[in-house]
Design a protein that fits this description.
With 93 residues, this protein is of the alpha+beta class. It is built from one helix and two strands, in the order αββ.
Length: 93
């Protein structure tokens, strides 16, 4: 393999490794079940603000939620909720 191609391959591989490592360190902790992992109610997240800004937090997204049967769960960068839309009795979606 010519030297120039080898240098490009090494540089590309190094860039991919750096991106993967950076992404792994920036992920937030998942809360896959009620009260967090293992349902222990222990939060080990770091880098969290001490108090909210006086103007409040910037809203990044919203979605309507109706009556449900559980609290939200956070996993793989997504928020999951159990929602219920009443249909013909005795059921719903």
């Amino acid at each position: 393999m010519p030297t120039r191609e080898r240098e490009r391959l090494i540089a590309g591989s190094l860039a991919i490794v750096i991106l993967l490592l950076a992404g792994a360190s920036l992920r937030a902790e998942d809360w896959p079940e009620f009260r967090g992992k293992g349902r222990q109610g222990i939060w080990t997240e770091t880098g969290i603000m001490e108090r909210f800004p006086e103007a409040g937090l910037k809203i990044l997204w919203r979605t309507p939620i109706r009556g449900g049967f559980s609290g939200p769960s956070v996993a793989n960068g997504r928020v999951f909720v159990m929602d219920f839309i009443e249909g013909k009795r005795p059921g719903g979606t």
